[in-house]
Design a protein that fits this description.
The chain is of the alpha/beta class. The protein is built from seven helices and ten strands. The protein has a domain at 12-101 and 163-231: Rossmann fold. The chain is 29% helix and 26% strand. A six-stranded mixed β-sheet has the order 6-7-8-3-9-10, sandwiched between helices. Strand 4 and strand 5 form a beta hairpin. Helix 5 (151-163) runs parallel beside helix 6 (181-197). The longest helix is centred in the last third of the chain and has 17 residues, at 181-197. It is globular and about 50 Å long. The relative contact order is 0.20.
Length: 235
């Protein structure tokens, strides 16, 4: 069973109680019952071998896969009692490869604000431009077609799209593992800017194989081993 219980959770944004995951077809255990608190002001790095359960944990936290056991709490409330779109606007998941719709960069950035559950939110073009500028993109980048973007460019767009929703928690599933060094720098800069805008109220959980990246972005490091979440780096 696992971890996070030794950290104070009075400021917990996202918390799990005995959260577990079982493969529905084989009944193999993918995630052992896990207790985890992600507190406001934390950047948690999650490392571990491929197949150890890191992505399983993130996908379950993002409610992309329903948990087999246990509970997820958001601001102290079970997420089962909350509308999923509202939860996902506050807890955003970024996959290893960006998923963009057909259209320009601007079309992709506007997309979340066209959805019914985000009708109370307004697309901020100035903020979008500022974030792209921070990522080192020229002003005409916003007019590029999504199909013409490199993998790194597409990931920057997907990240900016999420950040425009001003989430409180970001779940990063190896978002830079397939990117060139310049794109890695851009993604990390965007994340740190988002975090530092409100450092006492936001948090992230970042899956990475790169121990140097874990040191750069993490204020706390957890390790996943065979579905078991452990404090600290592996021995």
């Amino acid at each position: 069973m696992t971890t996070g219980s030794n950290h104070p959770d009075s400021t917990a944004l996202l918390k799990t109680r005995q959260l577990g995951q079982v493969d529905p077809s084989t009944q193999a255990t993918l995630l052992l019952p896990t207790d985890l608190s992600i507190n406001a002001g934390e950047r948690v790095a999650l490392i571990g071998a491929s197949g150890s359960g890191k992505s399983v944990l993130l996908r379950t936290l993002a409610l992309l896969d329903a948990p087999s056991t246990g509970d997820i709490l958001w601001l102290g409330q079970p997420v089962s009692a909350l509308p999923i779109p509202d939860y996902r606007a506050q807890v955003c998941y970024l996959a290893q490869r960006a998923a963009l719709v057909d259209g320009t960069v601007l079309d992709n950035l506007r997309l979340p604000f066209s959805l019914r559950h985000n009708r109370q939110r307004t697309f901020d073009a100035h903020k979008a431009t500022a974030l792209l500028d921070l990522a080192g993109k020229p002003r005409n980048f916003i007019d590029k077609h999504g199909a013409d973007l490199s993998g790194g460019e597409a990931q920057v767009v997907a990240l900016v799209r999420a950040l425009l929703l001003a989430p409180k928690v970001m779940l990063f599933d190896e978002p830079t593992s397939a990117l060139d060094p310049q794109s890695v720098t851009a993604v990390e800069a965007l994340v740190m800017n988002w975090f530092n805008e409100s450092p006492g109220a936001r948090a992230c959980l970042w899956v990475t194989h790169d121990h140097q990246q874990a040191q750069r972005i993490g204020t706390r490091t957890l390790t996943m081993h065979q579905g078991n979440l452990l404090d600290g780096n592996p021995a």
